[in-house]
Amino acid sequence: MMEGGGAKRETVLGWIERHHGHDLTSEDLESVPSTGEPTWRNRASWARQHAVDSGFLCQNSPHGIWELTEAGKEAMRPLSLEELL
Hints:
By secondary structure, the protein is mainly α. It has one domain (about 5-20, about 35-85). The chain contains five helices and two strands; from the N terminus they run E-H-H-H-E-H-H. It has helices spanning about 10-20, 25-30, 40-55, 70-75, 80-85; strands spanning about 5-10, 65. Strands 1-2 form a two-stranded antiparallel ribbon. The longest helix is centred in the middle third of the chain and has 15 residues, at about 40-55. The radius of gyration is 14 Å and the shape is globular.
């Protein structure tokens, strides 16, 4: 995680896989034909875009960096570590 609420895409997806990989279905693990990456990673990228559109992630972050906006940081404040894991 980078200071200020941002992280590289691979860091975020790696965290998700380590903490929630046991929840992934066989469909989630299938490869997307156009990219070869697992379906769940592709869907996570689309979810990131929805978070940008909703104002929770920065639109102008450097390529490959997922960074919380102030609204995103505010939305995360009430969550405990247990809720994130």
